[in-house]
Amino acid sequence: MEHTSLLERILRGVALTLVVIFFMFPILWIFMMSFQTNETILRIPPQLIFEPTLANYTALITGKLMTAAGTLDIAFMRNLWNSVFLSVTSVAVSLLLGVPAAYAFARHKFRGSEDIAFTLLSFKFAPALLVLLPLTLYFQKLGLANTYFGLIWVYQLICLPLILWIVRGYFEDIPADIEYAYRIGGHSWFATFRKIALPLAGPGIAAAGLLAFIFAWNNFVFALVLASADKQPVTVGALAFITSSGIQYGQISAAIVLSITPTLALALYAQRYLVEGLSLGAVKG
Amino acid sequence: MTAVVSQRPKPSGFRISKKVLPYVLSLPALLVCIGILIPFLTSVVYSFQRYRLSQPWARQFNWGDNYISFFTDPKFWNTLKVSLLYAGTTVVLELLLGLAIALLLQKRSTLNNFISIMLLMPLMTAPALAALMWKLMTNPGFGVLSYLASLIGLQDFRWASSPSTALFTVVLVDIWVYTPFIMILLLAGLRSLPTQPFEAAALDGVPRSFVFFRITLPMLTPYILTATLFRLLDSIQQFDIIYAMTQGGPGDTLTVFQVEAYLNFFQSTNVGRSAALMIILWAITYFLSNIFIKNWLRLRERARGQA
């Protein structure tokens, strides 16, 4: 690469700049819109310089929007809370169920273990609505429709395969000899699991948990089908905004900014593990 | 000898035989998933029934009628065409763009690493919210992209609300969200390639196009295949972006499989047709995922081998 000509370096620079603009511009623009009043947003041509206002965020956080026609209630904070609660609980349940299973798949090649592991993996690739549509009818009969319990159960479809396959890889990376040595010392398998395997796979488990959280947070279709307004997360809630009357574009933008900030922040924090997580452990970053 | 054994601390807690243990450990995860397998079987049953939520009394088995009627149903052929077109266009464009960006960022430097991390941000944005962002930007009244389009002479460019440009618009959003996925996988692949062949080629003064087509691409193929199939599996099932952007409209321009099944279920309450559509989509994804898993396993073994 040392022999690159000046022309090539310029072309590379231009290409990279275009790439960065294309991928960053929408986030930047929505971020800017969230600090504007409807008046400046509607101005043509669009303004790059404006007097920033926090009014959109205040309206969302207090849940009250003052308009000429009166005060309007916005349930956005409720959506945000639902997102936090659903994602955190789903990931916690997934870790509780998935980590022991991942350990079993990594350490014990038992009868049918590969089949079971692949069945779990195949859930990730099956069309969501194939399962969701009959599930709505069942949930109505079982009284699980529009409950956190039902949603968290279904969210396992997103979190469990991810956690199982990533964590399994981390357990496989631990040399079995370390565990044998500890067990020869007379410790039970559970002590070995808790004192040796879990701490060694710890960073991987944390990364899988963060990724599962991001995917749970970003999910749209599950809650769209199974939840009504009071249980909806931000992905569904923000979409309802655009059709509801009285809400202004600045507030929609502010809602988007608040909704994507947690996942973007977590992704930056966990970026070292993203490659491995996104490829379900097939590619190491 | 016995004295030595008795000196060991006794394993605490209850004992589970070695044979049963793995089953016990994986059972809870399995039970949760079995609850999800039942609706899958229900879908199969529904797909062989005449079943409308609005006419529950007329519910009966009609066996293959839902499937047979697809052959003469232009709406079904439209669904198949749009789904394949959407999946094909997004995956090809994302692959080309992702590969190009990965090659641009291949060299490890602070700037390149910083850019590659920044480019992950669209991927971490919820696709439904990404669609909403683009919806705001393409609004005919104030959208910045509508304004920019008018600057280059495209007056009244209607983006997702015109049948002729709706597909283009949702494909654009898909590219925005998912190109970073292919980019980051291929970048990891490029950086993990052995350096010797490249050094040898540089010593021999081999032309760079030859290096790219005869060394880089072949060695990168497993990564390209895995990334492509991953995206293809996702893209043929795309729902979030299309539903959030246009709800399948205008008209039936964008009624891809999952959107069409959703509309059939909730708007025309035709459960049978909706289930049959999902079974066909499942058959396609099952076929694709079998090819995918082979490649994915090969890569996974290689990654584990390096560890």
TrEMBL record, chain B:
The chain crosses the membrane at residues 20-48, 84-105, 117-137, 166-190, 211-233, 275-293. GO terms for biological process: transmembrane transport. Signal peptide: none annotated. Keywords: Membrane, Transmembrane, Transmembrane helix, Transport. The keyword Cell division does not apply. Pfam families: BPD_transp_1. The keyword Membrane applies. Gene3D superfamilies: MetI-like. GO terms for cellular component: plasma membrane. It is found in: Cell membrane. Its main location: membrane. It is a multi-pass membrane protein. Belongs to the binding-protein-dependent transport system permease family. This is Sugar ABC transporter permease. It comes from Mesorhizobium jarvisii.
